[in-house]
C-alpha cells in the first residue's frame, strides 16, 4: 500500500501525458505546473483549512488555462509541441520564482494534505488504504474510459497515426489536440495536489516529473511518434518505474545513478518499440 501510495502521483501524471503522446506530441510543462500547484496552494491557503476547496478550484482553473494555451500554440501557431511546452515550462518556473521569491511562504493545511498523506486504517484484508490510491483508481478509470470507450480516444489515436487522413475523415484535429493538452495539464494538477500532501512545499517538487511521465508511457508501450498508447499499460509503466527507483534506493545508490538508469530505460524502450514497428511494417 505504501508503494502504491508513492507511485500514485506519477501514475496519474503519466496517464494524462499519454493523451498528448498518442496524439503525436509531448507535454514538457507538467513538471513546472506541479511546482506551481504546490507552491501556489501553500501561499494562497497559508495554512487556512477553510481555503482548501477554493484554492484547489483555482489550481484546476490554472491547469485548464495552461493546457488550453499549450494546445492553441501548437495547433494555430504551428509551433512543435516540444518547443511550445518547453517554453511554457520555463515560463511557469519563472513565474513560481517571481511569486515566491525563491523561498515558498505559507503552509498547506491538513485538509489539503489529506489527499496525499492520509491512510484509511483497519480496512478488511489490506489493513490500510491510502487516499492517494483511491484518487489513482478514480482518475485512472476516468482517463481509461475517455481513451478507450469514447469517440475522443478513437480520434486521438487516429490523429496520432495520420493527422491528414483523420482530418479528411472529418475529425476536428485542432479541437481534439487541444483537449489532449488540457487533460494532461489537469492530470498534473491532481499530481501536484497529491505531492503537496506527502512531499511538502518546495520550488523543485515537480522537477523531472515530465520526463518520468514520458518514460512511464513508453514503458507502457506508447509510441513517441503517436498513434498508439494505453492508459492501463501506462499506469503499469509508472508502477514499474517507481519499483525500479525504489530498488535503487534500497541498494543505496545515489540520485545520479537513478537519472542514468531512467535515461537508459527511455532509450532502450524507444529503440525496442521502433524495432517492433519496423518489423510489423515489413
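^ Assign residues to that structure.
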Amino acid at each position: 500500500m505504501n508503494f502504491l501510495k508513492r507511485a500514485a502521483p506519477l501514475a496519474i501524471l503519466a496517464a494524462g501525458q499519454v493523451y498528448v503522446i498518442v496524439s503525436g506530441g509531448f507535454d514538457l510543462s507538467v513538471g513546472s505546473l506541479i511546482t506551481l500547484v504546490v507552491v501556489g496552494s501553500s501561499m494562497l491557503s497559508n495554512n487556512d483549512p477553510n481555503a482548501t476547496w477554493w484554492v484547489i478550484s483555482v489550481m484546476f482553473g490554472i491547469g485548464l488555462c495552461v493546457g488550453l494555451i499549450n494546445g492553441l500554440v501548437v495547433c494555430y501557431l504551428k509551433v512543435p509541441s516540444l518547443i511550445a511546452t518547453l517554453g511554457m515550462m520555463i515560463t511557469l518556473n519563472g513565474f513560481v520564482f517571481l511569486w515566491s521569491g525563491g523561498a515558498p511562504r505559507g503552509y498547506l493545511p491538513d485538509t489539503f494534505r489529506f489527499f496525499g498523506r492520509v491512510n484509511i486504517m483497519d480496512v478488511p484484508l489490506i489493513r490500510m488504504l491510502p487516499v492517494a490510491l483511491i484518487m489513482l483508481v478514480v482518475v485512472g478509470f476516468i482517463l481509461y474510459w475517455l481513451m478507450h470507450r469514447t469517440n475522443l480516444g478513437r480520434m486521438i489515436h487516429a490523429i496520432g497515426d495520420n493527422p491528414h487522413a483523420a482530418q479528411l475523415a472529418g475529425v476536428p484535429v485542432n479541437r481534439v489536440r487541444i483537449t489532449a493538452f488540457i487533460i494532461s495539464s489537469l492530470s498534473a494538477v491532481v499530481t501536484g495536489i497529491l505531492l503537496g500532501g506527502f512531499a511538502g512545499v518546495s520550488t523543485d517538487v515537480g522537477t523531472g516529473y515530465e520526463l518520468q511521465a514520458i518514460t512511464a508511457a513508453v514503458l507502457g508501450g506508447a509510441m513517441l511518434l503517436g498513434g498508439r498508447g494505453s492508459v492501463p499499460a501506462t499506469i503499469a509503466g509508472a508502477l514499474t518505474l517507481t519499483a525500479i527507483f525504489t530498488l535503487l534506493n534500497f541498494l543505496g545508490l545515489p540520485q545520479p545513478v537513478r537519472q542514468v538508469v531512467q535515461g537508459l530505460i527511455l532509450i532502450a524502450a524507444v529503440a525496442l518499440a521502433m524495432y517492433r514497428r519496423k518489423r510489423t511494417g515489413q
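The mean pLDDT is 91.
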